[in-house]
What does this fold into?
Amino acid sequence: MAEPAYTVASDSETTGEEKSSSTFAEIAIGIDIGTSQCSIAVWNGSQVELLKNTRNQKLMRSYVTFKDGVPSGGVSSQLLHEHEMLSGAAIFNMKRLIGRVDTDPVVHASKSLPFLVQTLDIGVRPFIAALVNNVWRSTSPEEVLAIFLVELKAMAEVQLKRPIRNVVLTIPVSFSRFQLTRIERACAMAGLHVLRLMPEPTAVALLYAQQQQQTAHDNMGSGSEKIALIFNMGAGYCDVAVTATAGGVSQIKALAGSAVGGEDLLQNMMHHLLPDAESLFLDRGINEIKSMGLLRVATQDAIHKLSFQHSVQIDVDLGTGSKISKVVDRGEFEDVNRKVFEKCESLITQCLHDAKVQIEDVGDVILVGGCSNIPKIKNLVLNVCKRDELYKGMNPLEAAVCGAALEGAVASGLSDPFGNLDLLTIQATPLAIGIRADGNNFVPIIPRNTTMPARRELLFTTVHDNQTQALIFVYEGEGKTVEENHLLGYFKITGITPAPKGVPEINVCMDIDASNALRVFAGVLQPGSHLPAIPFMEVRMPTVDDGHGWCAEALHRAHGSSLDLVTVQKKI
Amino acid sequence: MSGTLTLTAATTLFSLPENRLSSTHNTTPASFTKTPSAAHLRRCKVSARACTETRPETCRSRGSLYEILRINNNASQNEIKSAYRSLAKVYHPDASVSHPESDGRDFIEIHNAYATLSDPASRALYDLSLGARRQRRQTVSSSSSSPFDFCPTRRWETDQCW
It folds into this structure.
């Protein structure tokens, strides 16, 4: 099929009715790539439809096997047995690994996975490899994700009988912009163009907005808003959002997220069952990987059963001489994972606080994600929100992908005669963005939970007399010092007119557009006047690549504080 | 009409990257007339201001925050929220009815107006400054609000150079 000769932008000049038919071929599809499962959905002209693979599954396992050298993913291939996934040839949990360096605790926690994750703790990407015919075949999370996306894309193209190019992907709230570029790269490798990367709970919020609009259609624009709290916990991440909804507009008030999920529950449980697992599996031979796989499957199974029964008998022969035979009850499971549950609670509290919303004002509490079946998760969400009931209107495993498909249709400029696409998400920034100044401090310029698109600026000045250059380090995160945050990039501004310290004025402005692209402008102002001494520099972020942890340190070693900045007291 | 008032550093300063942005991302000449939104909000808070000339091009952002949201000065919180939502549906870059050249500048302005007016404390403060401003305005007839207006030559220069 040929590429359509029109663009969405030019189409929006025509009327709505014409638009819906002519842009149909360009509707972006929604993809929810989960740590453990993934799904794909599309607006079919009247509603959102989840696509099924040839085995009639709507939810597909997120993994890729490198057996016999030819990679194949969970979309098409059928595992003969769960254990095959754990033979060393299959790579999974890529969402936990993507865009992380080997000093990251999440990467360290992934070392118990039944394939090779090697860390050298120097701030570069970890060595990840699959065991193929007893040889380690190196790969990267981007490659694994791309292979998987190619399969998803092929599956959708066959079913929709059109080429797929534009996608809306859901992402965890806590993803840094650097991780987002990795996701984009994986999509590009698969021949997909990312229209939007949507934090998972905001996709759910959009679906909720649509449902609210359908139930109270005549209420549109009346301004009576409903506040909902969305708690999403999957295998890899936990996200919370507070949204205010009215008339199909979902306004994200606050977001909070962390890399805790079902995988942590599983690992804590595995550690509980076999405390010396680490040392046992240090040598990654085929047998150790097999044992790790066996333990993993048995533990996973037990956790699933504990959602429905109070205790479970675990019997597993690890094959290396050690056998586990144990009865585990629900209390034990909750005890082992106390810290994870505490983190979940604190995320909800933080999100409500950031949204400046009292718990009494929350209308609906929505619980979604793979962990939503766990009784403890249900209870803690209800407890923190002081509720007896959760919102019942959506499938917890399909809500995010449905929201992504809706956003795909809306962002493609589609309209629906029944007003089902009369929707809008007003997003907020999940993490603060700022620069390094005042020594080693992180000075936010766009704070967390700022409505997007956004543009903010701040004035800085020099720390040395006759300083003519300054380095702008752009960071993202919540930490007070820069080391706690993600480095997005850096650039140098030159041409500062020699003057005593504190006199030159350096303006740093940040701009995030609706598609979440970040641009940083920096420039020096002429002393006395307010014209720039030299043209402003405009830099699209992030600019750093792998091993970025090194760069800041190396620059500090090379230049000391000679290129530093401090904030000017008055905020412009 | 000529009446001149103080020019705060912030306004022109802000306008520089602003203009540059519009020139790189918009091909329509009309986009130059868009007023930097944050500057607008700030100016409103900074209080009285007047202008040296009335610009022939109309700024969409002209007038008070209430005018931006197209509501009365005594609008209720519900009316403010509802106005914000309906305007968002038109001016948000994601909205389907949005104009192709929309780059979010209008929406930022609308959101800033909403952010000020939806918070009772900041709304009260703004109402006070609005009262002061209206008194001053009696001496000057123009109500154009672009920061460039305070210094036409500078505006020309930035338009040409960036």
